[in-house]
Specification:
Blueprint: H1 3-23, H2 28-47, H3 51-75, H4 86-112, H5 115-121, H6 124-136, H7 143-161
Helix pairs in contact: 1-7, 2-4, 3-4
Length: about 170
């Protein structure tokens, strides 16, 4: 990490730490999601597989677990796939495509850019979700969360605008 990246990471971590202290709780779900997706990106990068081959490998690993879950839900009478609700079945089929296409793009990007850059780019989705929650759905935001958000977005901006600068 260069000094700008170190500053950006420090600012983001400080924002999250201050919000956690003020709120009295660690955002463990958010941190677990960030950690798991970061590890996922690392594995994708280190595996070096072509996007389609990587997605095929992931699907082969996850399929037995998903199939067992679906069979158990179906046996319990709570399954939706292939049932009387045609709309639910079609939506479940389309969910595969809607999931696979972004994963293919992610896998292609993981092979082309640094993990540092990939990590900071991944703030786009949570930022859009935050904006939707606040502006489209009128969800309330506490001052500590606003402070954490401003710190994290400031860190992302610092990182983005210092690429290509002297280290």
């Amino acid at each position: 990490m260069d000094r700008w990246t170190s500053w950006a990471v420090g600012i983001a971590a400080t924002g999250v730490a201050v919000a956690s202290i003020i709120m009295g709780a660690l955002p463990w779900i958010s941190l677990a999601l960030a950690t798991s997706f970061g590890l996922y990106g690392l594995v994708k990068k280190k595996a070096g597989l072509e996007p389609l081959a990587g997605l095929a490998a992931e699907t082969l690993i996850a399929s037995p677990f998903a199939l067992a879950f679906l069979l158990a839900r179906g046996a319990a009478g709570a399954g939706s796939f292939g049932g009387p609700d045609t709309v639910a079945t079609v939506m479940l089929l389309l969910a595969g495509i809607v999931t696979a296409v972004p994963l293919l793009f992610f896998a292609a990007a993981a092979n082309r850019i640094t993990l540092t850059r990939m990590g900071f780019i991944q703030y786009v989705s949570p930022t859009l979700q935050f904006g939707l929650g606040v502006f489209a759905f009128g969800e309330g935001v506490s001052p500590p969360m606003i402070a954490a958000f401003v710190a994290v977005i400031g860190a992302v901006a610092l990182y983005a605008f210092t690429r290509g600068r002297p280290r």
